[in-house]
Amino acid sequence: MAEKQQEGSNVEEGSSRAAGKVVCVTGASGYIASWIVKLLLDRGYTVHGTVRDTADPDKTWHLRALDGANDRLQLFNANLLEEGSFDAAIDGCECVFHAASPVFFTIKDPKVNY
Ligand SMILES: NC(=O)c1ccc[n+]([C@@H]2O[C@H](COP(=O)([O-])OP(=O)(O)OC[C@H]3O[C@@H](n4cnc5c(N)ncnc54)[C@H](OP(=O)(O)O)[C@@H]3O)[C@@H](O)[C@H]2O)c1
C-alpha cells in the first residue's frame, strides 16, 4: 500500500516536470516505439510521433486510442529514405527516441529456413 502511494506520487511528480515538454518518437507505430509513446503520454509529455502514413488507420489507431493522445499526441509523416522528412517532427523537441527501423523480410517460409 505504502509502495503504491509512493509510486503514485512519483508519477505525479514526473507529470509536473514533463508538463509542456515535447518529445519526438520516430517509428511511433512500431512495437517498441508505441510503448515509448504510451509511457511518455502517461507521464504528461507532449509527443510528436512519426509514421510513414498518418492517414493509415492500421498504423495509427492504437496510438490515437492512448490516454492523453487527443490532447498531447501529434503524428507526422516521415520516411527514413526521404532526407529532411523528420525536421518538422523534431523541431522544438527536448529529445528524440529514434525507434524507426526498416525491417526487410526475405524469408518466405520460416519452416524451410530455420
Ligand atoms: N522488438 C524487440 O524486441 C527489439 C529488441 C531490441 C531491439 N529492437 C530494435 O528496436 C527497433 C524497433 O523495433 P520494433 O520491434 O519496435 O520494430 P517495428 O515494430 O517493426 O517498428 C519499426 C517501425 O519503423 C517504421 N519504419 C519502417 N521503415 C521505415 C522507414 N523507411 N521510414 C520511417 N519509418 C520506418 C515502421 O513504422 P511505419 O510503417 O508506420 O512507418 C515501424 O512501425 C529496431 O531497431 C529493433 O532492431 C527491438
From TrEMBL:
Keywords: Oxidoreductase. Residues 23-101 form the NAD-dependent epimerase/dehydratase domain. InterPro entries: Epimerase_deHydtase (IPR001509), NAD(P)-bd_dom_sf (IPR036291), NAD(P)_dehydrat-like (IPR050425). GO terms for molecular function: oxidoreductase activity, acting on the CH-OH group of donors, NAD or NADP as acceptor. SUPFAM superfamilies: NAD(P)-binding Rossmann-fold domains (SSF51735). It holds the Pfam family Epimerase. PANTHER family: NAD DEPENDENT EPIMERASE/DEHYDRATASE (PTHR10366), NAD-DEPENDENT EPIMERASE_DEHYDRATASE DOMAIN-CONTAINING PROTEIN (PTHR10366:SF663). This is NAD-dependent epimerase/dehydratase domain-containing protein.
